[in-house]
Specification:
Elements (H helix, E strand, L loop, with lengths): L3 E2 L12 H4 L12 E7 L5 E7 L1 H10 L3 E4 L4 E4 L8 E8 L6 E7 L30 H21 L5 H8 L1 H21 L2 H22 L3 H12 L6
Parallel strand pairs: 1-6, 2-7
Antiparallel strand pairs: 2-3, 4-5, 6-7
Helix pairs in contact: 3-6, 5-6
Length: 238
């Protein structure tokens, strides 16, 4: 279903084509471009900034997927076309001057080509910064899992010496699987006979080792989310 724009619709008597009416409040620059900010709808996190021309905006509104214009390649590109890290667009908003767009998106995988969840992870001097704080609750928990998964993907690519994750990945799938079984057993023991903080700690250990196993297998975290969504919707049974 095409995404809705906040400027969609025409006043009575407007004879312009529908595609023009949907973007009548948008003012492209002299080069035919304007900046587009992608913000994760679920968490409110600013993910990235890219450029759009009229065709990129039209495709975004028509398909519900984020399309941008590459100034370096002078070409249209769809977010996630090669990486699979797509952006499903819930809504497009235009700013008060009409010369910038805000895309509220559902991000699959990391938004940044570096593997970071979002592109804004450095200070002006280039030093790394922690992710900005997000509101607590389910969105925050999901955000932390995304950040951890992205870090593990980088570990697999870089394999830095001295990293526990590197050691696990080098040990192989059977060793990682054994750690998952071990952590699951420790979680059960903690749940039966230990305080809540120990249950939380063992749960964190199990989640970490499970994510390492996913990374080793090449299974995306979004694939797991997809299974959970289908089950919640009742399409895969109870």
């Amino acid at each position: 279903m095409p995404v809705r724009s906040v400027e969609e619709g025409r006043p009575a008597g407007d004879a312009r084509p529908a595609e023009d009416a949907r973007t009548r409040a948008v003012q492209f620059g002299p080069d035919g471009l304007l900046p587009a900010v992608a913000q994760e709808a679920r968490t409110g996190r600013v993910l990235m900034v890219a450029w759009m021309n009229a065709e990129a905006l039209a495709r975004t509104l028509a398909t519900g997927q984020a399309w941008y214009w590459s100034r370096r390649r002078a070409a249209l590109w769809r977010k996630g076309e090669t990486s699979g890290h797509t952006q499903a667009v819930r809504e497009v908003r235009v700013d008060c001057d009409g010369d910038a767009l805000l895309l509220l998106v559902d991000q699959t995988g990391p938004a940044c080509h570096t593997g970071e969840p979002a592109c804004f992870f450095r200070a002006p001097d280039g030093s790394p910064l922690p992710p900005p704080a997000t509101p607590g609750g389910a969105a925050d928990a999901a955000d932390i899992l995304d950040e951890l998964f992205a870090l593990l993907v980088r570990r697999r690519a870089e394999m830095p010496e001295g990293s526990y994750t590197t050691a696990l990945l080098r040990a192989g799938r059977e060793r990682i699987g054994a750690k998952v079984r071990e952590e699951a057993e420790e979680l059960v023991r903690a749940a039966v006979a230990e305080p809540d903080d120990r249950v939380a700690e063992e749960t964190a250990d199990l989640l970490y080792h499970t994510l390492v196993l996913l990374v080793e297998r090449g299974v995306r975290l979004e694939a797991v989310r997809g299974v959970l969504r289908r089950r919640r919707a009742g399409r895969d049974g109870p």
